[in-house]
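Work Package 4 report. The design task specified in the project plan requires that, given a folded chain encoded as structure tokens, an amino acid be chosen for each position. We show below one input record used in the internal validation round.
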């Protein structure tokens, strides 16, 4: 049975040998970075500031000082960014905010915007 020169270990191009004139190339693919989205909290006149700070700490993993700064920004400016995530994570965090606010009877709203 004849050996196929195109197969490893076959013909004149055994392991460790290259065919004459052959150039080994490897194509590199660039990693595609998924788009990111901002989770925005919106101010209202009824949700307690302490609850917003707790949401920022529990859902968004902010420390007490950073959570307080974000809450005050939301309070003074009408809206503020709680975090930036890929779409699925951002949507999940918005759903968690709405669920916890609804469970407590607060009208706190959050949304997702393109970064």
């Amino acid at each position: 049975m004849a050996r196929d020169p195109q197969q490893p270990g076959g013909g004149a191009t055994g392991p460790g040998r290259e065919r004459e004139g052959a150039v080994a190339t490897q194509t590199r693919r660039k990693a595609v970075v998924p788009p990111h989205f901002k989770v925005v909290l919106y101010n209202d006149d009824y949700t307690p500031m302490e609850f917003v700070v707790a949401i920022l700490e529990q859902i968004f993993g902010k420390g007490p000082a950073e959570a307080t700064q974000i809450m005050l920004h939301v309070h003074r400016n009408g809206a503020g960014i709680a975090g930036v995530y890929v779409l699925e994570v951002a949507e999940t965090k918005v759903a968690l905010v709405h669920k916890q606010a609804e469970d407590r009877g607060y009208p706190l709203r959050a949304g997702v915007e393109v970064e």
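Residues 95 and 104 are 14 Å apart (CA to CA). Validation will be extended to a larger panel in the next phase.
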